[in-house]
């Protein structure tokens, strides 16, 4: 397999790069500033593309790679890949489902607790010596709050299970009702937002879910409600979110993802009712290693003519 060209779109994880290097002829796309020339010179030897949450195979890249057979994504979300183009051209697509579910759900609960109990501010309070001047202000209880989840899939279900342990009533919105779950279904996001204290976004980014969190949803959630986004930044109309927080129309926000990563609206930096994370939902050694092994396993299976581990297309 050493002669098979694999194009790695962005740095993902040293372990994955080393293992790809051992098995394939690896091209690191970021090492070639003249992208058009690079593609002209190497397009005919590249049979696989590996990308992740920030970089995927869009229509232009797919068109530029006539020998492309498989796109193996180091992520469960595939919003950066032109799936229709892949289907049209018979290019296989794989992602990394399941192995990251626990981490993202754990982090969601962490975000909720950090936001409601103001854990980051408490830590600063101790470090800065302010505790000696008096106790920290009272915060907000999590246990028993109503949690609404957009997207009751693998991650959404894992969040629901965890929130249940905090005695939180769970409700959800997705395109189809999940009768196998015992949670309350709302057929639209505004109704869900009107009926929960904590609204969690955990659905895939698609044309339909782009800006699924808009002014109407934020107003329905209200000044006591909080938004948690562990999906993708583009689920949220960010300028609208910022203005709702500045105007006190929304109680708070815990965000792992942003519209234009790694750029975060600076108005958020001065607010004490937000917790801001640098897209680290799946970022543990254990999970990222498992994700890398799935990427490698899918590529090897494909080129050995075996069934893919996690086929999407
Ligand atoms: P999944 O198992 O496919 O679940 C997705 C859920 O979203 C399903 O319940 C689906 O139900 C629902 N859904 C799909 N389209 C929808 C729509 N238009 N409106 C409302 N709900 C919709 O996916 P997963 O493994 O849980 O992952 C979910 C997403 O989390 C990923 O796509 C990714 O973007 C994000 N993620 C983020 C991080 C991070 O680091 N923050 C890490 C991993 C994943 P229906 O089909 O019935 O609508």
What's this, in brief?
This protein has 313 residues and is an alpha/beta fold. The chain has helices spanning 14-23, 35-42, 59-64, 83-89, 101-116, 119-127, 154-164, 189-194, 215-221, 238-246, 285-303; strands at 5-8, 25-28, 46-51, 70-73, 92-94, 147-150, 170-173, 184-185, 198-201, 226-229, 252-255, 274-276.
Structure description:
By secondary structure, the chain is of the alpha/beta class. The protein folds into two domains: 5-97 and 286-303, Rossmann fold (3-Layer(aba) Sandwich), CATH 3.40.50.720; 101-276, Rossmann fold (3-Layer(aba) Sandwich), CATH 3.40.50.720. It is 35% helix and 15% strand. It has eleven helices and twelve strands. α1 runs parallel beside α11 (285-303) and α5 crosses α7 (154-164). NADP nicotinamide-adenine-dinucleotide phosphate is lined by residues 76-77, 97, 100, 104, 150-156, 173-176, 202-206, 208-209, 230-232, 256-257, 279, 281-282. NADP nicotinamide-adenine-dinucleotide phosphate (NAP) binds next to α7.
Low-confidence stretches: none
Query: Any idea what the shape is?
Result: globular
Q: Specify the CATH architecture of the largest domain.
A: 3-Layer(aba) Sandwich
| CATH topology-level name of the largest domain | Rossmann fold
Walk across the major sheet and give the strand order: 8-7-6-9-10-11-12
Describe the secondary-structure layout.
Blueprint: E1 5-8, H1 14-23, E2 25-28, H2 35-42, E3 46-51, H3 59-64, E4 70-73, H4 83-89, E5 92-94, H5 101-116, H6 119-127, E6 147-150, H7 154-164, E7 170-173, E8 184-185, H8 189-194, E9 198-201, H9 215-221, E10 226-229, H10 238-246, E11 252-255, E12 274-276, H11 285-303
Parallel strand pairs: 1-2, 1-3, 3-4, 4-5, 6-7, 6-9, 7-8, 9-10, 10-11, 11-12
Helix pairs in contact: 1-11, 5-7
